[in-house]
Amino acid sequence: MEKNASTSSLNDLGPSGLDLTSAFFKPIHNSDPPLPSNRCTKISVVGVGNVGMAIAQTILTQDLADEIALVDAKPDKLRGEMLDLQHAAAFLPRTKITASVDYDVTAGSDLCIVTAGARQNPGESRLNLLQRNVALFRHIIPPLAKASPDSILLIVSNPVDVLTYVAWKLSGFPVNRVLGSGTNLDSSRFRFLIADHLDVNAQDVQAFIVGEHGDSSVALWSSISVGGIPVLSFLEKQQIAYEKQTLEDIHQTVVGSAYEVIGLKGYTSWAIGYSVANLARTILRDQRKIHPVTVLARGFYGVEGGDVFLSLPALLGRNGVVAVTNVHMTDEEAEKLQKSAKTILEMQSQLGL
């Protein structure tokens, strides 16, 4: 694929690129001109690996965008993925799909989703991997921000908390328009495990994992409810004994879930695809739903010491992050959250941004 080339329409199929639309359709005489339509919704996905394509495919099937633009550094892979999606047009809602290695294809996006990232080499330190990803983001975020200055940036690349901070710094965007996928998926896994224990629908479970998307994440057991019933207070009132270790085991299962999937199939894709599409729906349709996502956490729940990004339950809408939810935390949970923030700040301090 040429650097500046993108494929957007296949209607020029006649000799010398003749537009066949006028040949197939006859205009209705004495009709009114078409009414001005609302501006189309456009989503750009940077990175067409397993995660990026799972996100794009889920967005397509859920009819969340009028146009999807794909960007990647590998032109053959990129064109192949674009064509594969275009060939499914007869089975999907009508969506324009474009692709290019040039970020101009993302111009006018409402939402830019970044999944691109360097893979960890055998024996490579976490810090060195992070520094390589920061170098990669220097080539991704500025052209994205230039092409779509009014868009919302949604970072999925890992480590997502630090890279969301990097994207905020490099984009120059206001803080409400830069967020990360954070613990939205971790919380879904958490809700699934609790629902599985209680044999109920996971949608009836309200539960959050907050903090780092990683080993120092915090499970907010004190605020968990099922069908509107606070779980721990209910158990105490009913004098039903439970062990804290049981709760911790469930949390550790959540933390290890991604590693288990990667160990079995080599990568994660479908769950993160649904998770990010869920965030896209809330944002672009202004649904004002609460999601645990990576946001600027300074000043919330006693988190201080710098501009640290980590996951908190946040109200999302068309302008990105509307507010941070004032969820109840015990002193122990707040202390763990502050410790998680310090872990992330230590990583950020070594970046020199």
TrEMBL record:
One of its GO terms (molecular function) is L-lactate dehydrogenase (NAD+) activity. Pathway: Fermentation; pyruvate fermentation to lactate; (S)-lactate from pyruvate: step 1/1. InterPro entries: L-lactate/malate_DH, L-lactate_DH, L-lactate_DH_AS, Lactate/malate_DH_C, Lactate/malate_DH_N, Lactate_DH/Glyco_Ohase_4_C, NAD(P)-bd_dom_sf. PROSITE patterns: L_LDH. Keywords: NAD, Oxidoreductase. One of its GO terms (cellular component) is cytoplasm. Residues 183-346 form the Lactate/malate dehydrogenase C-terminal domain. Pfam families: Ldh_1_C, Ldh_1_N. SUPFAM superfamilies: LDH C-terminal domain-like (SSF56327), NAD(P)-binding Rossmann-fold domains (SSF51735). GO terms for biological process: lactate metabolic process. This is L-lactate dehydrogenase. It comes from Capsella rubella. The lineage of its organism: Eukaryota, Viridiplantae, Streptophyta, Embryophyta, Tracheophyta.
